[in-house]
Structures
1.
Amino acid sequence: MSELTLEDQIKELLVERLFLDLEPSQIEKDTHLSEYGVDSFLMLELVVAMEEIFAVHFEPADITAQALKTVSSLATLIRSKKHQQQ
Protein backbone atom coordinates (compact mmCIF):
# COMPACT_ATOMS: atom_id res chain seq x y z
CA MET A 1 0.00 0.00 0.00
CA SER A 2 1.35 3.40 -0.89
CA GLU A 3 1.86 6.02 1.75
CA LEU A 4 -1.01 8.46 2.05
CA THR A 5 -0.45 12.09 1.15
CA LEU A 6 -0.97 14.71 3.83
CA GLU A 7 -4.21 15.70 2.09
CA ASP A 8 -5.44 12.09 2.21
CA GLN A 9 -4.53 11.85 5.90
CA ILE A 10 -6.54 15.03 6.58
CA LYS A 11 -9.53 13.60 4.69
CA GLU A 12 -9.39 10.44 6.81
CA LEU A 13 -9.09 12.53 9.96
CA LEU A 14 -12.12 14.60 8.94
CA VAL A 15 -14.25 11.48 8.51
CA GLU A 16 -12.97 9.63 11.58
CA ARG A 17 -12.84 12.42 14.15
CA LEU A 18 -15.83 14.46 12.99
CA PHE A 19 -18.01 11.44 12.23
CA LEU A 20 -18.87 12.74 8.77
CA ASP A 21 -21.25 10.53 6.83
CA LEU A 22 -18.82 10.39 3.90
CA GLU A 23 -15.94 8.37 2.62
CA PRO A 24 -12.56 10.19 2.58
CA SER A 25 -12.50 9.77 -1.21
CA GLN A 26 -15.69 11.85 -1.47
CA ILE A 27 -13.97 14.90 0.01
CA GLU A 28 -12.47 17.21 -2.59
CA LYS A 29 -9.30 18.97 -1.46
CA ASP A 30 -10.41 22.41 -2.71
CA THR A 31 -14.06 22.32 -1.62
CA HIS A 32 -14.97 24.44 1.39
CA LEU A 33 -15.27 22.23 4.45
CA SER A 34 -18.54 23.98 5.33
CA GLU A 35 -20.07 22.21 2.32
CA TYR A 36 -19.47 18.93 4.15
CA GLY A 37 -21.21 20.19 7.28
CA VAL A 38 -18.08 21.22 9.16
CA ASP A 39 -19.04 24.11 11.45
CA SER A 40 -16.94 26.11 13.91
CA PHE A 41 -17.45 23.58 16.71
CA LEU A 42 -16.31 20.70 14.53
CA MET A 43 -13.40 22.77 13.27
CA LEU A 44 -12.18 23.20 16.85
CA GLU A 45 -12.29 19.41 17.24
CA LEU A 46 -10.34 19.07 14.00
CA VAL A 47 -7.65 21.55 15.07
CA VAL A 48 -7.08 19.61 18.30
CA ALA A 49 -6.92 16.33 16.37
CA MET A 50 -4.46 17.75 13.82
CA GLU A 51 -2.15 18.97 16.59
CA GLU A 52 -2.23 15.49 18.11
CA ILE A 53 -1.88 13.42 14.92
CA PHE A 54 0.62 15.61 13.05
CA ALA A 55 2.63 16.70 16.13
CA VAL A 56 2.26 20.41 15.45
CA HIS A 57 1.16 23.32 17.62
CA PHE A 58 -1.04 26.06 16.24
CA GLU A 59 -0.87 29.59 17.61
CA PRO A 60 -4.12 31.58 17.77
CA ALA A 61 -2.86 33.64 14.83
CA ASP A 62 -2.63 30.44 12.73
CA ILE A 63 -6.33 29.71 13.14
CA THR A 64 -7.84 31.87 10.42
CA ALA A 65 -10.88 31.34 8.23
CA GLN A 66 -8.60 31.14 5.20
CA ALA A 67 -6.32 28.51 6.76
CA LEU A 68 -9.26 26.36 7.81
CA LYS A 69 -11.23 26.63 4.57
CA THR A 70 -10.29 23.47 2.64
CA VAL A 71 -8.25 20.28 2.89
CA SER A 72 -5.60 21.99 0.74
CA SER A 73 -5.39 25.02 3.05
CA LEU A 74 -5.15 22.75 6.11
CA ALA A 75 -2.31 20.82 4.49
CA THR A 76 -0.50 24.07 3.73
CA LEU A 77 -0.90 25.15 7.36
CA ILE A 78 0.42 21.84 8.70
CA ARG A 79 3.39 21.87 6.32
CA SER A 80 4.29 25.42 7.36
CA LYS A 81 4.15 24.49 11.06
CA LYS A 82 6.27 21.38 10.51
CA HIS A 83 8.80 23.44 8.58
CA GLN A 84 8.98 26.01 11.42
CA GLN A 85 9.65 23.25 13.94
CA GLN A 86 12.66 21.92 12.06
Note: The radius of gyration is 12 Å.
2.
Amino acid sequence: MQLGRVVGTVVSTRKSDNIRGLKLLLVRQVSSANAPLDNYLVAVDVVQAGVGDTVLYAEGSSCRQTAATDKRPVDGIVLAVVDTWEVDGREIFNAARGEGAAA
Protein backbone atom coordinates (compact mmCIF):
# COMPACT_ATOMS: atom_id res chain seq x y z
CA MET A 1 0.00 0.00 0.00
CA GLN A 2 1.00 3.59 -0.62
CA LEU A 3 0.03 6.95 0.83
CA GLY A 4 -1.65 9.36 -1.55
CA ARG A 5 -3.91 12.37 -1.82
CA VAL A 6 -7.04 12.43 -3.94
CA VAL A 7 -6.51 15.29 -6.41
CA GLY A 8 -9.43 14.74 -8.74
CA THR A 9 -12.09 12.51 -10.19
CA VAL A 10 -12.23 10.65 -13.47
CA VAL A 11 -15.52 10.49 -15.38
CA SER A 12 -16.03 8.15 -18.31
CA THR A 13 -19.45 7.77 -19.88
CA ARG A 14 -18.29 5.01 -22.24
CA LYS A 15 -16.55 2.11 -20.54
CA SER A 16 -16.42 -1.65 -20.26
CA ASP A 17 -19.53 -3.17 -18.69
CA ASN A 18 -17.51 -4.77 -15.90
CA ILE A 19 -16.36 -1.41 -14.51
CA ARG A 20 -19.72 0.35 -14.72
CA GLY A 21 -20.82 1.79 -11.40
CA LEU A 22 -17.29 2.12 -10.01
CA LYS A 23 -16.23 5.60 -8.83
CA LEU A 24 -12.81 6.57 -10.19
CA LEU A 25 -10.42 8.93 -8.42
CA LEU A 26 -7.13 10.50 -9.47
CA VAL A 27 -4.62 9.91 -6.66
CA ARG A 28 -1.20 11.55 -6.29
CA GLN A 29 1.36 9.66 -4.22
CA VAL A 30 2.84 11.42 -1.18
CA SER A 31 6.06 10.59 0.67
CA SER A 32 6.25 9.48 4.31
CA ALA A 33 7.02 13.15 5.07
CA ASN A 34 3.71 14.14 3.40
CA ALA A 35 5.40 15.72 0.37
CA PRO A 36 3.68 15.30 -3.00
CA LEU A 37 5.47 13.04 -5.48
CA ASP A 38 5.18 12.90 -9.27
CA ASN A 39 3.34 9.54 -9.35
CA TYR A 40 -0.37 9.57 -10.22
CA LEU A 41 -2.87 6.72 -10.40
CA VAL A 42 -6.49 6.31 -11.40
CA ALA A 43 -8.02 4.19 -8.65
CA VAL A 44 -11.41 2.69 -7.88
CA ASP A 45 -12.88 4.14 -4.69
CA VAL A 46 -14.44 1.57 -2.33
CA VAL A 47 -14.40 3.75 0.83
CA GLN A 48 -16.21 6.91 -0.30
CA ALA A 49 -13.09 9.09 -0.33
CA GLY A 50 -13.21 12.54 -1.86
CA VAL A 51 -10.99 15.19 -3.39
CA GLY A 52 -8.52 16.43 -0.77
CA ASP A 53 -8.60 13.23 1.32
CA THR A 54 -5.34 11.52 2.20
CA VAL A 55 -5.72 7.82 1.47
CA LEU A 56 -4.07 4.43 1.39
CA TYR A 57 -4.12 2.91 -2.06
CA ALA A 58 -2.86 -0.26 -3.68
CA GLU A 59 -1.88 -1.24 -7.20
CA GLY A 60 -1.78 -4.55 -9.02
CA SER A 61 -3.62 -7.84 -8.64
CA SER A 62 -4.49 -7.22 -4.97
CA CYS A 63 -6.94 -4.56 -6.20
CA ARG A 64 -9.26 -7.30 -7.42
CA GLN A 65 -9.68 -8.82 -3.95
CA THR A 66 -12.58 -6.73 -2.65
CA ALA A 67 -16.28 -7.47 -3.02
CA ALA A 68 -16.67 -4.41 -5.28
CA THR A 69 -13.76 -5.29 -7.58
CA ASP A 70 -13.74 -9.11 -7.69
CA LYS A 71 -13.06 -10.35 -11.23
CA ARG A 72 -13.00 -6.80 -12.61
CA PRO A 73 -10.10 -5.29 -14.63
CA VAL A 74 -8.93 -2.99 -11.83
CA ASP A 75 -5.28 -2.08 -11.25
CA GLY A 76 -5.68 0.66 -8.61
CA ILE A 77 -7.89 0.93 -5.54
CA VAL A 78 -8.41 3.35 -2.66
CA LEU A 79 -8.65 1.16 0.45
CA ALA A 80 -8.76 3.61 3.37
CA VAL A 81 -9.04 7.27 4.28
CA VAL A 82 -6.11 8.19 6.56
CA ASP A 83 -6.75 9.85 9.93
CA THR A 84 -3.15 10.15 11.15
CA TRP A 85 0.35 8.81 10.63
CA GLU A 86 3.64 9.18 12.40
CA VAL A 87 7.27 8.46 11.57
CA ASP A 88 9.89 7.80 14.25
CA GLY A 89 7.50 8.92 17.00
CA ARG A 90 6.67 12.25 15.30
CA GLU A 91 3.19 12.89 13.98
CA ILE A 92 3.41 13.77 10.30
CA PHE A 93 -0.27 13.98 9.37
CA ASN A 94 -3.48 14.51 11.31
CA ALA A 95 -6.68 14.92 9.29
CA ALA A 96 -8.54 16.51 12.20
CA ARG A 97 -6.06 19.41 12.24
CA GLY A 98 -5.86 19.77 8.48
CA GLU A 99 -3.02 18.94 6.13
CA GLY A 100 0.09 18.01 8.09
CA ALA A 101 0.47 17.92 11.86
CA ALA A 102 0.93 20.97 14.06
CA ALA A 103 4.60 21.86 14.58
Note: Strands lie at 2-10, 24-30, 36-45, 54-59, 76-81, 84-87, 90-94.
